[in-house]
Amino acid sequence: MHGGLGADHTAFVNSGFNKLSNKLELIYYDHRCNGRSSFPGIETLTHKNLAADAENLRIALGHKNLTVIGHSYGGITGLEYALRYPKNLRRLVLITTTPSGNALGEARKIAETRAPHLMSTVDKMLGGECANDNEFIELLTTLAPLYFKDFHLFESEFSEAAKDMVPNAAAFRHSFTELLPKYDLREKLVNINVPVLILCGRHDWITPVSQSKILNEKIQNSELVIFENSGHWVYIEEEELFLNTVNEWLDRT
C-alpha cells in the first residue's frame, strides 16, 4: 500500500523493495483517485473506501492470508484494513507511518528545528496547499532532503524511485485537509491481533519515531525496529538492513 496520498505504487517497483519477492508474491496497486487508478470523485476518497478497495482486490484475486505492507499513508490504509477486515489478514508490516493525525504537529516542530529555511514549503505541505499536479511535484522536490538522513547520498536512488510516479494533487489536498485532521486509531489498536512489524527511521520528520512507539505499545503482537541511519525512506537509505529485517521476521511469522 503506497504512500502519499497523491503518489502511487511505483516507488516500490523502482527500488530495492522488489527484492522481497523472494519471500512473497508482491501485488502493487494504486489507491482510488491516485496514480493510474480511476477517480470516482474526491468525496469517495475515505479510509473506509480505501480499506474496502483492498478487500475487493483480495477477493478479485482469490487470495487469503494476506501479508499487508504499508508505507507512510499506506500504513494508515494498512491499519484501517487490519481493523475492518481481520479475517483474511495474516501479517502486517508498517513502514514509517502513524496511528493519528496528531503526528503532524510534531512533524512541524521537527522541520522547524532541522530545516528552518524550508518552513514556508513545509506549511504548504502540511496544509495541503497546492493548486495542481505541478505544484505538488514542486513541494515534493523542495522537501525531498527533509525526508532523508543524508539526501546527497541517495538523491539518484530517490529520483529513480519517483521517476514513473503519476501525481494527483487533488488526492494530496484531500488527505491533508479532510482525512488526516479526523484520523485517530490509537484507542482501536488493541484490537489488532495479527503479528505486526513496525519499521521507522530515526531521522524521519513526517512520521516521527514517537508514532511508531505508540503503535508498538498499543499493538500487543508487534515488534519495533528503528533504522538509525534513515529518514522516511528506510528501504532506500538502509536497503540491506530493511530486507534482512523483513525477511527474518517473515521467516518467524
Structure, explained:
By secondary structure, the chain is of the alpha/beta class. 45% of the residues lie in helices and 10% in strands. The chain is built from eleven helices and four strands, in the order H-H-E-H-E-H-H-H-H-H-E-H-E-H-H. Strand 1, helix 3 (73-84) and strand 2 (89-95) form a beta-alpha-beta unit. It is globular, with a radius of gyration of 17 Å. The two termini are 20 Å apart. The model has no long low-confidence stretch (mean pLDDT 96).
Portion of residues in helices?
A: 40-55%
The overall pLDDT average reads 96
Distance between the termini: 20 Å
CATH superfamily: Alpha/Beta hydrolase fold, catalytic domain
Q: Major beta sheet, specifics?
A: 4 strands, parallel
Strand content: 5-15%
CATH class reads Alpha Beta
The CATH topology name reads Rossmann fold
Low-confidence stretches: none
Overall outline: globular
In total, the number of strands is 4
Q: Please give the count of helices.
A: 11
CA radius of gyration: 17 Å
The computed structural class is alpha/beta
Overall domain count: 1
Strand order of the largest sheet: 1-2-3-4
- CATH architectural name: 3-Layer(aba) Sandwich
Order of helices and strands: HHEHEHHHHHEHEHH
